[in-house]
Amino acid sequence: MPDWNSRLEVSVNGTALVAVESVTPTYTTPVTPIHSIEADNVGALYHPQTATFTMTVKAIGGSVATLTKLAIAGTKFNIQLAEKRGTDWTFNKLLFRDCVISSVNPSNVVMDGVPIATISGMVLGFNADTDIELPSA
């Protein structure tokens, strides 16, 4: 049976602030084809890469208020894997550095569960070579 003791969390200056329910990152590398009079698709023009995220957080305690405060202040934060113990996680290390929030959308109050807030933003610092570490096989 897996031991699910790892989680994603939001941290500022190395201090964990909020546990994250889920994160959906999106990476884009826009490419525009270059055409000439003689032929189509003779090359490509690469534009800057971008990384964005959408995360959900349980709206209990001060979690959404903390994230809203980060958004309003424009405070940069990290989304990182916190593996307290166990080896059940897909990554040994996962880090999105210098994230900023562009929107916070709390859900309605529900009678049969915990409300969820959806937070969207941008990842300003990410390097696949150093910020992702896979477990050894």
Main sheet makeup: 8 strands, antiparallel
- Helix/sheet category: mainly beta
- Compute the separation of the termini in Å: 19 Å
- What share of the residues lie within helices? 10-25%
Instruction: Report the CATH architecture.
Output: Roll
Give the overall silhouette: elongated
How many discrete domains?
1
CATH topology: the name is: Pnp Oxidase, Chain A
The run of helices and strands is: EEEEEEHEEEHE
Report the β-strand fraction as a percent range: over 45%
CATH class: Mainly Beta
Radius of gyration: 19 Å
Give the tally of β-strands.
10
Low-pLDDT segments = none
Q: Please work out how many helical segments DSSP would assign.
A: 2
Mean pLDDT: 80
3D structure, described in words:
The protein has one domain (6-133): Pnp Oxidase, Chain A, CATH 2.30.110. It is elongated, with a radius of gyration of 19 Å. A hairpin with a 2-residue loop joins β1 (6-12) and β2. The longest helix has 11 residues, at 63-73. It has 137 residues and is mainly β. It is 11% helix and 51% strand. Strands 1, 2, 3, 6, 7, 8, 9 and 10 form an eight-stranded antiparallel β-sheet that branches.
Topology (elements, then pairings):
Elements lengths: L5 E7 L2 E6 L1 E7 L2 E4 L8 E4 L3 E9 L4 H11 L3 E7 L9 E14 L9 E10 L2 H4 E2 L4
Antiparallel strand pairs: 1-2, 1-7, 3-6, 4-5, 6-9, 7-8, 8-9, 8-10
Give the tags.
single chain, 137 residues, mainly beta, Pnp Oxidase, Chain A, 8-stranded antiparallel beta sheet, 10 strands, 51% strand
